[in-house]
């Protein structure tokens, strides 16, 4: 099997698969937050969630060679920690203020932010099909689940979307020999002092519901973040960001099954505008990868 043939199981296509998996777990975590959100203060919940993530990651983190887990670029991790503080709070506000599916309509401004920032910040090349696909998918989001009320929940969702885009792209600034587990571990650890201070101001009595909230969302968010780190470090953001829209499909299904939100013809049409460009994007990126390998010789 030569390099051109191997591209079918690597690169952008594999990164898209990781993002699809990550979005499934990410939406699951959001559903848990919406279900149990009344049991804790915003920063109390996020602080407990981060502690649980650290506990889960620590054994895996320590098993790695020191060269793959040592602390490098602390300023980048501090920046990612601050993004976690702001973005997590905004996600909770949006989820508690809006229906699950409607909240995700706003969250899915993140791929648009990602495409713009990747071009301006990371100097990634602009391909027409990527631009068309991202905005076509965003149109599908609006068609499927048009948010009628633009209030604090929607504003918080837009801020969260921007934080998500910057957080994902900032993984590219970490040395490549640092593993995905290392990136997530240090990013989580650097968020703890800020979250701890915030938690002091809205702490409530501990309960089993709060434990379920913390453990369930920690698992979902942890898996989502690992998948995103892997995807955005192994392919151009513009090539894989289209897969972020798959979360809308998962949100619509979970909203219907758990919160009894209605899926009408607009939702089905919007989902079609999302899924079809994902398939087209995968095919286009596959051809681009083959072309690059052939040019390299």
Explained architecture:
The chain is an all-alpha fold. It is 78% helix and 0% strand. It contains 14 helices and no strands. It has helices at residues 3-6, 11-36, 42-63, 66-69, 74-97, 100-107, 110-120, 128-144, 152-170, 180-200, 208-234, 237-240, 246-258, 265-296. Helix 2 (11-36) runs parallel beside helix 13, helix 5 (74-97) packs antiparallel against helix 9 (152-170) and helix 10 (180-200) crosses helix 11 (208-234). The longest helix is centred in the last third of the chain and has 32 residues, at 265-296. The model is unreliable at 1-9 (pLDDT under 50).
Secondary-structure map:
Elements: H1 3-6, H2 11-36, H3 42-63, H4 66-69, H5 74-97, H6 100-107, H7 110-120, H8 128-144, H9 152-170, H10 180-200, H11 208-234, H12 237-240, H13 246-258, H14 265-296
What is the H/E string?
Answer: HHHHHHHHHHHHHH
Portion of residues within helices: over 70%
Q: Mind describing the biggest β-sheet?
A: none
Number of helices: 14
Task: Enumerate the spans where pLDDT stays under 50 for 5 or more consecutive residues.
Answer: 1-9
Structural class: mainly alpha
Global shape: globular
Give the CA-CA distance, first to last residue: 15 Å
Task: State the total count of DSSP E strands.
Answer: 0
Oligomer: single chain
Instruction: Report the β-strand fraction as a percent range.
Output: under 5%
- Measured on Cα atoms, how large is the radius of gyration? 19 Å
Task: Please state the average pLDDT score.
Answer: 79
């Amino acid at each position: 099997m030569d390099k051109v043939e191997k591209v079918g199981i690597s690169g952008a296509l594999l990164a898209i698969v990781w993002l699809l998996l990550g979005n499934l777990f990410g939406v699951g975590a959001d559903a848990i937050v919406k279900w149990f959100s009344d049991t804790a203060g915003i920063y109390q919940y996020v602080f407990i969630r981060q502690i649980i993530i650290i506990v889960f990651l620590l054994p895996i983190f320590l098993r790695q060679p020191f060269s793959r887990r040592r602390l490098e670029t602390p300023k980048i991790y501090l920046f990612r920690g601050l993004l976690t503080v702001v973005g997590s709070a905004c996600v909770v506000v949006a989820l508690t203020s809006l229906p699950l599916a409607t909240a995700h309509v706003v969250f899915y401004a993140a791929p648009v932010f990602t495409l713009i920032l990747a071009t301006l910040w990371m100097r990634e090349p602009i391909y027409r099909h990527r631009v068309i696909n991202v905005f076509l998918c965003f149109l599908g989001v609006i068609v499927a689940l048009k948010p009628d009320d633009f209030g604090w929940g929607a504003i918080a969702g837009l801020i969260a979307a921007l934080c998500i885009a910057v957080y994902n792209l900032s993984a590219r600034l970490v040395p490549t020999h640092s593993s995905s587990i290392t990136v997530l571990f240090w990013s989580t650890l650097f968020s703890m002092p800020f979250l701890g201070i915030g938690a002091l101001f809205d702490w409530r009595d501990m309960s089993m519901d709060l434990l379920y909230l913390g453990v369930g969302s920690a698992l979902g968010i942890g898996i989502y973040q690992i998948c995103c780190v892997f995807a955005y470090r192994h392919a151009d953001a513009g090539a894989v960001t289209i897969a972020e829209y798959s979360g809308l499909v998962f949100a619509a299904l979970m909203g219907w099954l758990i919160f009894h939100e209605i899926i009408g013809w607009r939702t089905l049409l919007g989902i079609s505008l999302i899924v079809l460009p994902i398939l087209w994007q995968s095919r286009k990126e596959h051809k681009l990868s083959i072309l690059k390998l052939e040019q390299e010789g």
